[in-house]
Structure formats: structure tokens, C-alpha cells
Design goal:
mainly alpha, 0% strand, elongated, signal
């Protein structure tokens, strides 16, 4: 059992370091910086239209961070806004996991969403996400996109790991 845990830890380290090179994990986040300039000091107010702009703009920034694998920006905005507020944004405009699984996304993004439990299932359970990812994997195989195939295979493993927790 100890050997298994040791091998698992090494595999996670190798996996993380291989993908960290294509993700922003230690630089300043230009997406976050832009969002902070526009909305960083915003507090919910009486004007529902301005509140809606805040939700739309914040969701846009979060989605851009997910798509560009801006882990630094995601971590900072997660700590700033908190889990509950980010989940409420998804209820307003759709699940981030649904969005990222539609694209060839870096598995570190999926791990970030799962590890921080910022997922809205909307009547879905993890097996539905696995089915969606499997479908996307088959599409990538049909297209011959080896990078997408590799990413979707890793995402399926992450979803299985998450389901086991």
C-alpha cells in the first residue's frame, strides 16, 4: 500500500509539472488585473442592471482564466470572491465544468475545479461528466488530435478520482 501511495504521488507530481509549463502558475494574471481594474472594488448594490453586469463580467473573466489555464488568476479570484459567490455565478450563467469539457482544456483546470469543489451539477452527477468527456475523447480520436486525446484521457481519470472521494 505504501508503494502504491508513493507511486501515485510521483505520478501526480510528474503530471502536474508536465502541464504546469503551459499554464500560468506563477506569473501575474493579466486577466485578473483587468477584472480588478473594472470590478475589483465592486459591492452588490440596489441597481439590478449593474449587479448583472458584474456577474456577466466576472463570469467572463473566470471563463477566460479557465480557457487559458490561468491557475494563478483562478486561485486569486477564488480567494477573493469565495466558493459560494463563484458557485452563484455558475447558477446564473452555467457550470464551468460543462463549459471546459466542451473544449480541449488543460487537465489542471479540471483539477482546480474539482479540488476546490466549485462545481454546479445542475441535475447531473459525475458520471454524466465522464460520459461527456468520453464522447469528446472519441471525437478527438476521430480527428486524430493526439494532444486533445491525451488531455481527455487525463480528465477522465480525474473525474474517476473525484467520484471516489
Amino acid at each position: 500500500m505504501k508503494k502504491f501511495v508513493a507511486y501515485l504521488m510521483v505520478a501526480i507530481l510528474v503530471f502536474s509539472s508536465a502541464y504546469a509549463s503551459v499554464c500560468n502558475t506563477n506569473e501575474k494574471s493579466s486577466i485578473l488585473q483587468s477584472w480588478q481594474e473594472d470590478w475589483g472594488n465592486y459591492e452588490w448594490g440596489e441597481d439590478p442592471q449593474v449587479n448583472q453586469y458584474y456577474v456577466v463580467e466576472t463570469n467572463g473573466a473566470l471563463r477566460d482564466m479557465l480557457r487559458s489555464c490561468d491557475i494563478t488568476g483562478l486561485e486569486q479570484i477564488f480567494h477573493r470572491l469565495g466558493k459560494d459567490e463563484i458557485i452563484s455565478f455558475q447558477r446564473a450563467e452555467g457550470s464551468y465544468l460543462d463549459i471546459v469539457l466542451q473544449e480541449d482544456i488543460n487537465p489542471l483546470v479540471v483539477r482546480f475545479l474539482l479540488d476546490n469543489e466549485i462545481i454546479v451539477f445542475k441535475d447531473l452527477n459525475p458520471i454524466d461528466y465522464k460520459q461527456l468527456t468520453t464522447q469528446k475523447l472519441q471525437e478527438a480520436k476521430t480527428k486524430g488530435d493526439s494532444k486533445a486525446v491525451e488531455n481527455y484521457e487525463k480528465i477522465i481519470k480525474l473525474l474517476q478520482e473525484y467520484k471516489a472521494k
